[in-house]
Amino acid sequence: MRTFALAIHGGAGTLVKGLMTPALETQYKEALRFAVEDGFKILNQGGSALDAVESAVIHLENTPLFNAGKGSVFTAQGTHEMDAAIMDGANQEAGAVSLITGIKNPVALARDVLEKSYHVFLAGEGAMEFAKSNGYKIEKPDYFYDEVRYQQWQGIKDSEEFQLDHSVKKEGKFGTVGAVACDQNGNVAAATSTGGMTNKKWGRVGDSPMIGAGTYANNNTCAVSCTGSGEFFIRGVVAYDVACLMEYKGLSLNEAARIVIHERMPRINGDGGLIAVDGNGNLAMPFNTEGMYRASKSSNGQDYLAIYK
Question: CA distances (Å), 41 to each of 47, 132, 246, in order?
């Protein structure tokens, strides 16, 4: 039988081990384990890679531990603006949403863009109109309220500063979430979801919902979900760059991912990481920061879960 596999991430960055309490570390690991096992269960039952990545990301969006869905950070206006994308490697169809508010699971809305619209990327008021026309409940702001997120915002509120979620060396909550999968038919898929950066202004959009930058999937190469300093991942077209090195230079998944994260990104001072899978079920999870919340599960019996290097 063909190897099938799934990997997830919950953000990369400055995760100082000495400042992480044992209880908090346990919470993060349990959340990661639950999400990866849920997604893998779908693959094990013959389900699609697309279903698996959506389900895994929904679980991460539903916990306040990560900067996506329920745990999204505060904007300069004290609101929550969320982005998400999903892509099917079998046909390169994709859906993405940006600058949405009140949506419990942005990745589900991104999938509806893929399946129920003629478009790839919807943003702002238009994306919200699309959500309402498809029966989405608009959650009240208190659903997304989290005291740690609020205090992060209070620290830089009314200033010109913004804060990437992984950039503060203190006990707190971290990052963008994502998943990649290869199913029993060799189809790959990727999904990414984020609440952006604390105190962001002017409708800032990061790499997560941008196809080719933060999210990409193609059966001929791989599926990729990125996390880190979004501006640099946009400039580097990072998710597609991994696939491009595989397609045009014939590199393996591991080598392509390594070059992008450890050679190309540092040249432009980009920090972060990615998870990726190819059509043979091979996985790669490189990062150039102190850590990255990550977990994976494969039909070859290899399970992995870690936060630090």
Answer: 8, 31, 29
- Token look-up 């580097």 returns 236
Beta 303-308 vs 283-284: how paired, if at all? unpaired
Query: Which residue's entry shows tokens 């679980």?
Result: 59
Phi, psi of 25 (to 5 degrees): -60, -40
| C-alpha dist (Å) from residue 295 to 19, 123, 191, 214, 266 | 21, 30, 15, 18, 24
Question: Helix, strand, or coil here: 90?
Answer: coil
Q: Among positive and negative, which fits the CA dihedral 3, 182, 302, 46?
A: negative
pTM confidence score: 0.93
**Diameter of the chain by CA atoms?**
57
Neighbours of 247 (CB within 10 A): 15
How far apart CA 114 and CA 196 sit, in angstroms, is 22
Cβ atoms of 199 and 75 closer than 8 Å: yes
DSSP assignment of 66-89 equals BSSGGGPPP-TTS---EEEEEEET
**Encoding tokens for residue 275?**
């998870």
Rounded distance, CA 186 to CA 299, Å?
13
Q: Is 192 an annotated catalytic residue?
A: no
Number of Cβ within 10 Å of residue 213's Cβ equals 26
Averaged in consecutive runs of 10 residues, what is the pLDDT profile of the chain (309 residues)?
A: 95 68 90 98 98 98 93 84 97 98 98 98 98 97 80 60 46 72 98 86 91 98 95 96 98 98 96 97 95 96 93
Catalytic residue among 63, 75, 101, 176: 176
